[in-house]
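[step 3/7] inverse_fold.run input=structure_tokens len=253
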């Protein structure tokens, strides 16, 4: 395993106050395309958002001396914030002209941008709507492949699609941090396969006790501070029985 660069006591994924609150705050913008006539399916939007986060984390421009590396470091030195906005038509085309990466799912398109200061959004992104990002699944999603990564949503929380997209992105990022370099490369080369599903109540209770990466919300929007929102269940992180193999730390946002 690669060394965890963030001590749990000072994790950027914590609801308690920490030294990271004193650092300049940045946010990772995500924009989902929602056309009136053909909105994406909710589950596909959540999965595409998670893959978009992984894609920018793995991009060579985000590492070393890459053009986005400084912004990525500043963002990860403070709170790890993500905000999902929605766009259509000309708004989407203008967003697409800004530096970023568009990730496409079965019906969803999500564009992720390098982090920006909390109060320094580009004009064409700042005016996009945040609230009201509500989507539905025309058909119930099929059962997740147990051999693939699954981001399990808390069944007791009602979140808008935009909120859930950000939380799925958090969970994917936690899984990414816990993987070895070889495991990250394998996931990236496979195209970041993953599923997002809502856990059944009994399964959720089991998942939260398995030592898997766990997102705990800071309570800025929609839900109460400290709420557990998503568990990142990656096969590489559960290949050994809990308590008898390598330890996987849980963190909170």
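[step 3/7] decode complete -> sequence:
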């Amino acid at each position: 395993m690669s060394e965890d660069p963030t001590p749990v006591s000072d994790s950027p994924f914590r609801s308690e106050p920490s030294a990271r609150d004193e650092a300049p705050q940045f946010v990772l913008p995500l924009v989902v395309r929602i056309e009136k006539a053909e909105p994406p399916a909710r589950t596909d939007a959540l999965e595409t958002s998670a893959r978009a986060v992984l894609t920018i984390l793995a991009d060579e421009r985000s590492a070393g001396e890459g053009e986005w590396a400084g912004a990525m470091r500043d963002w990860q030195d403070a709170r790890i914030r993500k905000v999902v906005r929605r766009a259509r038509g000309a708004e989407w085309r203008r967003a697409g002209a800004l530096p970023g990466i568009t990730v496409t799912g079965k019906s969803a398109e999500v564009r992720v941008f390098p982090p920006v200061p909390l109060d320094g959004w580009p004009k064409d992104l700042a005016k996009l709507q945040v609230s009201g990002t509500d989507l539905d699944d025309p058909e119930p999603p099929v059962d997740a492949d147990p051999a693939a990564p699954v981001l399990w949503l808390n069944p007791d929380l009602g979140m808008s699609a935009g909120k859930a997209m950000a939380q799925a992105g958090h969970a994917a990022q936690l899984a990414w941090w816990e993987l070895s370099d070889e495991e990250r490369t394998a996931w990236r080369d496979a195209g970041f396969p993953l599923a997002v599903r809502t856990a059944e109540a009994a399964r959720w209770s089991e998942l939260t006790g398995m030592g898997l990466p766990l997102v705990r919300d800071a309570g800025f929007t929609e839900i109460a501070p400290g709420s557990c929102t998503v568990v990142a269940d990656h096969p590489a992180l559960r290949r050994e029985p809990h308590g008898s193999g390598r330890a996987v730390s849980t963190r909170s946002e």
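[step 4/7] annotate
Confidence is low (pLDDT under 50) at residues 1-15, 240-253.
The beta strands are 26-33, 81-87, 101-104, 109-112, 116-117, 150-153, 195-198, 214-216, 228-233.
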